[in-house]
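Subject: design request, 128 residues
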């Protein structure tokens, strides 16, 4: 863990390098000690249908959801949330300066008793 999901308005696809933002967030998450690198997942989902503020088509949004297994101290989560938000904001600064964009982030815990996991990624790290 964590699982980082970006939901973004379709009108941003021309203004934002979404794959670059995913990579930027993955790189930042990998520097956070409480986030084991093999568990980091970043994905982006485009919202084709949306309506923002006054309905003008120029408005866009990126909502970042961070889900992680419960058990980390509050101060660790607060620091991690701020670091990821700051990384996204820095990446998006050119767009924030020139267009209407709402950026938000929410971090929440996943109950480990209700979220079984398995995987083989650790077995394949470092392969070409």
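Subject: RE: design request

Done. Sequence follows.
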């Amino acid at each position: 863990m964590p699982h980082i999901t970006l939901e973004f308005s379709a009108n941003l696809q021309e203004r934002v390098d979404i794959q670059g933002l995913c990579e930027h967030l993955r790189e930042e998450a990998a520097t956070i000690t409480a986030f084991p690198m093999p568990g980091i997942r970043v994905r982006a989902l485009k919202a084709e249908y949306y309506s923002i503020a006054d309905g003008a088509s120029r408005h866009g949004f990126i909502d970042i959801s961070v889900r992680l297994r419960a058990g980390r101290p509050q101060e660790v989560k607060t620091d991690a949330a701020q670091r990821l938000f700051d990384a996204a904001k820095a990446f998006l600064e050119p767009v924030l300066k020139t267009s209407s964009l709402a950026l938000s982030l929410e971090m929440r815990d996943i109950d480990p008793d209700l979220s079984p996991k398995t995987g083989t990624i650790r077995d394949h790290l470092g392969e070409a």
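The beta strands are 3-9, 41-47, 60-69, 101-110.
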